[in-house]
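Reagents: none. Just compute today. Endo-alpha-N-acetylgalactosaminidase.
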Amino acid sequence: MRQGPVVLAAALALAATAMAAPALADPGAQAGSRPPTPAPSPTYELPSPDFSPSGPPPPSPTVQNLAPTPAQVAEPIAIASADLRVELDPGFPRVLRYTHLASGATLGGSAGEPAVVLNGRPHTATVALSGNDGATARYRLTFPGLPGVALGASIGVKGRVTTFRIDSVSDTEAFRVGTIDLPGHDLVSVSSEQPGAATAFTRLDPNSTRTADVFARVAGDTAPDAAPVGATYAIVNTDRLAAAIESNSTYDRPSGVTDRDAARFWHQARKDPAGTVTVGVWSGQWTYRAAGSPFTEEAPWAKVVVTPDANGDETVDWQDGAVAFRGIGVKALGAERTRDRVVIHIPFNFSSQATHPFLRTLDDVKRISLATDGLGQLALLKGYQSEGHDAAHPDYGGNYNRRAGGLKDLNTLLKAGKGWNATFGVHVNATESYPEAKNFSEQLVNKDAKGWNWLDQAYLIDQRGDLTRGTLARRFAQLRGETDRNLAVLYVDVFRPFGWVADRTLAELRAQGWQVTTEWSDKLERSSLWAHWANDLNYGGVTNKGLNSQIIRFIRNDEKDVWNAHPILGNARIVEFEGWTAENDFTAFYRNIWEHNLPAKFLQHHKIIDWNADEIVFTGGVRGTNRNGRREWFAGGRKVLDGGTYLLPWQGRHYHYNPAGGETTWDADRPMTVYRLTDQGRVPVGTVTPVGGKITLRAEAGVPYVLYPGKAPKLPDPGWGQGSGVRDPGFNGDRLDGWRVSGPVSVERNDLGHRVARLAGGAQARLEQRLTGLEPGRTYTASAFVEVEPGKTRPTTLEAGGQAVTIERSTAKNYIASDEKHDTYFQRVKVTFTAPGDAVTLRITAAGAPGDVRVDDVRVFRREPPGRVETFESAEPGWGPFVKGDAGGSFDARTHLAERHEPYTQAGWNGKTVDDVLNGDWSLKAHEERQGLIYRTLPWTARFEAGRAYEVSFSYQNAQADTYQWVTGYDAGGASVETRRTPIPERRTTATFTERVVGGCGDVWVGLRSLRPEQAGADFILDDFSVTDLGPAQDAPACGSLELAPASAAFEQGAANDVTTTFTNREDAAAADVRVTLEAPEGWAVAGDGTGSVEPGGRLTTTWKVTPPADAPYDVYDLKAAVSYTVGGVAKTLTASVRVRTLPPPPQADAYASDLEWVSADNGWGPVERDRSNGDTGEADGGPIVIGGRTFAKGLGTHAPAKIRFYLNGRCTEFRAFVGVDDVQATRGSVRFGVVADGVERARSPVLRAADPAYELVADLTGARYVDLVADDAGDGNGNDHADWGEARLICG
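Predicted 3D structure written out:
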């Protein structure tokens, strides 16, 4: 799953939203039956997950337009079961009529003989009836024009199910049968002559603001269909019988109307000369042998189930057909487990950080189990392989995340987790591959087809070839063979295809026993049990959520979690706490279980049998209502849910939850013991005894309870830290079991539900534990997350095995989004030691001083002995001595430890300009990073003592000049000051960087800064990092900062432009004789006075007037500032520099905006594109500009919010453009365009949406010096807002 540009919108208020209203083919179709509930109002849009072609859709497949040949059958043959008599054509395998034997009611079949279409072409068939045993009739089809080609077909009936099947296919080398179509081969039909005749059709549609369901009556005035219409589910009925159809149809190469499983079935309304309208339904294409495949597929089949009233409501309609469909429908593997998977969560590892190693996840599973009294869990491990999420796809097996514990710890998690009612899945990708993957090759991928580009550039897999070669199956078989069977589920990410590629993929996974979940609810629908975007209301937007079909949900509500919220049914949701999309709130995660998931799962234990507007009836005596906006549920005649409060029966116990708290009364027939649920397990509260058949429960607001008839079973012992070598490493137990403590030490739980050890300020406080099971003579690292209260200094020492490291202050913010501690000052502190024996004491001591110290996530792991140089070969989590800086904030980094896989990761392959790995097997790679500080050292990872000099050295390659700087800085007084920024030149072969650093002024650090946001191709690789002590320094560093800030990045020639310098004194004494100077290029005028004295912590700010010559060429120029001052008689200096541009020349004649240089450009996603639509984050990665099917060769591609400024100097009179949302956004996106001249709006478009035609925008610019082209998000978020300016043109002269 991807994270950009995705609208992480506020939680959508769908809890009270009804299933979207169906589109009625006839306004009177539903008269007297269940009216659909209102549709939700659309709010946020989202990025399309699909590659949408531009231009009009392709035409309907001509093969399905081949009308069947009318054929009367004088002497039908019949087959029969105890329930049905089925009349057949002896001259072709087709159904003529169904008769329900108990009632005599009938349904129609086919009125004509279809063409037989093989490989897309019709072929004349000779048909012979080869047998009829009364239950099955068999036929043989031969083809005079295709010698040696034959089909064996049959139609059989069992119970109420009739099955059409192609039993055998004979072909030749000269003609291999690939696909089979039987256009107009009606397997069932209803006609206007049958009372109550009606149809119900739907497709796969994840847009929660509408429905794909189409319900219609069949009457004499029903308009015939000019061409067949596709459907994914199909049901027909009369007032006496209903029928549903299922098929293993799959299209070899679906496109247009056959894509998206939209033509699994075809249906068509036809009117005969007598005026009778008949609607017939037949199967879509079957693929017997896919193009390029050496093997054949399952024999083609289609089934029709016929039923009278199936739900006991004394009415026959589509719902009876839906009930009957469950007996013939293709069912996803594991569907019966869905109802028990109450808690789904995503432990997330990313960019080499291993923030959620496997054994920590085991502790989280145990904590959830204790807190829910053992409710079922499904933990989907994102980042189980290689360096974490989106690394080394598609290495499903054989390349496990060693920083998270590797295969051994993964299997410990899987095996132990089973005892805590947890099943596990892993996130996999069968669409893209990364060059570091062991399975990456030029045979696997199309090296010219690029995919996701975050940590590395991915390439699209040849999915058909991957299937036909058997390599996909072999990779999954490796994962299956290496892991415990409790790894049962695959989260198949970013999977887009439909048809044979999708269905064959599912067949391979099913054969190995894998259950399937997906990113999007409409993908892999036959097997998907859960869809991420449907369940995560904060991810994406309302136009790509759950399947919007009432028909599908009626059938499969208990089998899947792919639904939108509904006022009676609700829906299961995922609220994360393990780092996915930076979510870290365990409290919100826990609340979601009780408010949404457990109620939804209670209903999923029962199948829907009758669905009305304000009431749904289920099997097992359960019904739910929604009247006057209040939801109530009943089970066995007793109310079990009232609004948001409930007492739900669940597998021998009851769960009680009252979000508002207080007393509630419920029906009960026995005494029950009440327990309050906590993350330590059940806590007894008391016993309730029925009085008059009722009990009264008193609840704390938002606190869950569980009730048992009698005494509850004994709580299991969690054994925190199982397999990790540390007892309770995450302080999950309230009693600090396994730890010896002295001083003020306790376990603290904050508002987010995070548990840490708190070493309170004041007296010395200590945690210690004896680590056992070590191998004498081996090297180990012990580590812990530590935070000294920000703003305080309190020496805190971590020691083990005779080695120690001390942290005095926490000054570096944690920016790792996948870490629950992001935006705090927790950082990992580690000590490496050689085990003297089989046990050592791990000790964490906070000295006696003010300020709390917090500790969490203690780990110990074996490693190779470290050297003086950091080579990044260790399996420790993180980036060696570096931690993430502020580039991008607490968002997923674009830096990770890159692994060698020659030749694909090295310079020269497919245009790569630099090596991903410089030395050994691993290097630290920053890939097209965001602007800001990418990474930096900490005082305990690279020590720079005051008064001593050091040499910092590393090997590097840098793909582009002017993209990265090496930074020296220090932390002091709550501020982080950068004292030196050294530009790193372009180097496409390995070079060595060295720089002298003097300690002082505060906690000194070094790091890497990115100058350009997500610059395409800007890769920086670092290896062999070292810090060498050079001894006492003779020079003292300047403790201060000098900032240089131009008011505008573009300077107007001949005019005074403002530039501000700010000197901040961070010395311990006053800075005297302060003198700031500003140097500009020769010929430029500079005016300003920057002199004075500055007290400690004070600032001297100077505004300068900088005037370039009137004839200064349009170019980039350097401004350099310097400050000199004295402290205690010692002279010190600081410098700063900045680059500015002069204004581009104004247009001299009419010009396209894309041919002009702009003054500035801001864009909501990636760069503004010239003569292309907005693409991804790189330059020139967009497609053609297409609006409403119209292509523009010239123009600008932007993404809202966007603003592009041009300098006109009064030379232009008019601006013209054709604006709109680019067609790459097929159904999503909403933008408003404007033209602003010298701060005054001159033109504005209405809100334009995807598929709208281009809107001509014209603005009068007479006299304007500047013009801004503005695109905003129309107030509903900027997901999918690709805003095109077609033929954007300035009229000048």
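The CA atoms of residues 316 and 1111 lie 86 Å apart.
Action item: order primers for follow-up constructs.
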